[in-house]
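Readers of this paper often ask what the protein records in our data store actually look like. This encoding replaces a full spatial description with a residue-level series of whole-number codes. For reference, a complete record is included directly beneath this paragraph.
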Amino acid sequence: MKKFGFIIAMLMLVSTNFKAFAQEATDPWQGFNVSYNYNAGGYDVNVHGISVGYLRGFSLSSSTPIFIETGLNFAYGRYSEDYGGYDAYVDQLNLSLPVNFAYKFQLSDNVALIPYTGVYFRVNLMANLGVKGYDLSESLFDYIDGPTRFNAGWQIGLKTHIKKFMVGVCYGTDFNKYMGDVRFDNLSVNVGFNF
């Protein structure tokens, strides 16, 4: 009888610990993420970079798992090119605000699949031209045909919440041109931690 009581006590302890991580389909979320970004523009302008961000999902219903997700992402990227024998590059910094509509499929107590789509608004903070080996750093915003300070676009993505962790992928494209005829298509792979 003591063994049976011990087994019941252990099962209750284990189930209590799992419930600490359990999610409900209508539970909101918030967390930090890190992303690898690949931005493909016209004319072989391909920017590789990373971003860090904060996202929060707000429940729109107490019975249906639909959400509005928003937050802030701070991104750095670099475009490099051999330009007439010189190793030229452009360093970029931007801040973006996504606004997504999401649906949460609760697959188990600890796993949720969240497809989403929405728009983003991006402020381009820096676009500096440099040449490796030379003390040169010029802001492209100083040029008449330089980049815009503001871009907007649409995106679609899929993320998975596994307990407190998040992994996802997102694709989007800009509505307006960044510079000249360059309009970026954006692909990102994300990992994060929810709290």
In short: The longest strand covers residues 111-131. The radius of gyration is 22 Å.
